[in-house]
Design brief:
- There is one protein chain.
- The protein is of the alpha+beta class and 139 residues long.
- The chain contains six helices and four strands; from the N terminus they run ββαβααβααα.
């Protein structure tokens, strides 16, 4: 799972699921975002997916400023690490039986991202969901 979060409101603005965590996965995720504000910063870890030439090229083409965590320091990337932790603990870790297929995993992830963006309230957003917060601030 490759995800991009807008740290303004913790909304997942792009995601892609693949059997292969390679550079193409990260590129495909970034390419889902059509317009970005000037000076947008994309923070990631130093994994091979984000240090690849192709990802660098696409980020540069989109005028994205790349920022990377220090090696072995997931706390530098806390917002998305926290999201992934919530995803796992609120879905996968609740299953007592093994999950039988990739399609079930994909459905669980897509349903959770929808729930996260549209229904899951966050204290830091005044007990609103990410999309409700964005909509409230836009008015």
């Amino acid at each position: 799972l490759s995800t991009i979060m807008d740290t303004y409101n913790s909304e997942i603005v792009a995601y892609k699921i693949s059997k292969h965590p390679d550079a193409q996965l990260a590129v495909d995720t970034l390419n889902q975002i059509k317009t970005l504000p000037k000076g947008a910063i994309l923070h990631s870890d130093q994994g091979a997916t984000y240090t690849s030439k192709e990802f660098f090229r696409v980020a540069k083409q989109k005028n994205v400023i790349r920022s990377m965590s220090r090696k072995g320091t997931p706390s530098d990337n806390a917002p998305i690490e926290s999201f992934h932790s919530s995803l796992k603990s609120e879905t996968f870790y609740l299953h007592k039986e093994p999950i039988g297929s990739n399609n079930i995993v994909i459905d669980m992830v897509e349903n959770y991202i929808y729930f996260w963006n549209n229904q899951r309230i966050l204290t830091k957003l005044g007990y609103l969901s990410p999309i409700d917060y964005r909509n409230k601030m836009a008015h």
